[in-house]
Amino acid sequence: MLNFNASHTNHHSFLLTGIPGMPEKNSWMAFPLGLLYTLTLLGNGTILSIIKMDSSLHEPMYYFLSILALTDVGLCVSTLPTMLSIFWFNAPEIPFDDCITQMFFIHVFGITESGVLVSMAFDRFVAIRDPLRYASILTSGVIGKIGVAVLARAICVVFPVPFFIKRLPFCHSNVLSHSYCLHQDIMRLACASTRVNSLYGLIVVIFTLGLDVLIILFSYILILKTVLGIASWAERLKAFNTCLSHICALLLLYIPFIGATMIHRFGKHLSPIVHTLMANVYLLLPPVLNPIIYSIKTKQIRKRIVQIFFRRQGRA
């Protein structure tokens, strides 16, 4: 039996938390959580399948959308095992190494998603600023290199984090605050100085997510300047409309992230349920809603989905 107030160092496992203070209510989350994961996998899988099958969608915008969908699937799969083990099977224990591995992939895919959104902002800028050379500038080779660079950046900045965690002794409670493993959550259980971890985590946030936000803002300033230079109001609205899906994806990622960060830093007096809710919204909401937003706002994808739906109805 695990000792919640262990006096020895180096726990061999951690205990994940479902609904804080109400473990008997965990089973209530089983169905909605399963539905969310099903929608995530189904939605992003549909986007990927449609883009692959329809040659008219083999354009830079849709290639970037494919990368975003793959990232969302990766983020979903990273959190899925422990979420299901808690809410479906009432098995909150996770081995130390498995926890570190999950932490690594969650942070890698989170930073990758931010980098993909930066790439999509650049895509929108090129499409609006120089539409005639759009396809020749953003070739499939260039997009592939951008995707590799975004993933490599995420892996490189997160790679030291597991080693920083492994060097720490753990002699306090082995109960984590969430239903998955995060760096800041594991770090708080250490019984040694975590200054290096905190400093490195802050540097990573500033030079990845913080820098990404500045680049996106700068891109949209240039986009706005370009759009305002268009004489026709109809053309202006059309240009802005091509950015709406991307703007929604940005808000879905950065607003919950900023909210979760602020609550973690300054909301220690708040109920643990609030912390858990914000952390879950940050990780679960973008993968679920991104494919829905792009399906609704992108005419070509929406048309293709309707065609597939009615074709299947006709066969039935």
Automatic annotation (TrEMBL):
Transmembrane segments: 28-51, 63-88, 100-122, 142-165, 199-223, 244-267, 273-294
GO molecular function, one term: G protein-coupled receptor activity
Keyword Cell membrane included in the entry's annotation: yes
Ranges of residues in domain G-protein coupled receptors family 1 profile: 43-294
Gene Ontology biological process terms from the UniProt entry: cellular response to lipid
InterPro entries membership: GPCR_Rhodpsn, GPCR_Rhodpsn_7TM, Olfact_rcpt, OR51/52/56-like
Family matches, as SUPFAM superfamilies: Family A G protein-coupled receptor-like (SSF81321)
Keywords of the record: Cell membrane, G-protein coupled receptor, Membrane, Olfaction, Receptor, Sensory transduction, Transducer, Transmembrane, Transmembrane helix
PROSITE patterns referenced in this protein's UniProt entry, alphabetically: G_PROTEIN_RECEP_F1_1 (PS00237), G_PROTEIN_RECEP_F1_2 (PS50262)
PANTHER family reported for this sequence: OLFACTORY RECEPTOR 51H1, OLFACTORY RECEPTOR 56B1-RELATED
Family membership noted in the UniProt record: Belongs to the G-protein coupled receptor 1 family.
Protein's name according to its UniProt entry: Olfactory receptor
Gene source species: Phascolarctos cinereus
Phylogenetic lineage: Eukaryota, Metazoa, Chordata, Craniata, Vertebrata
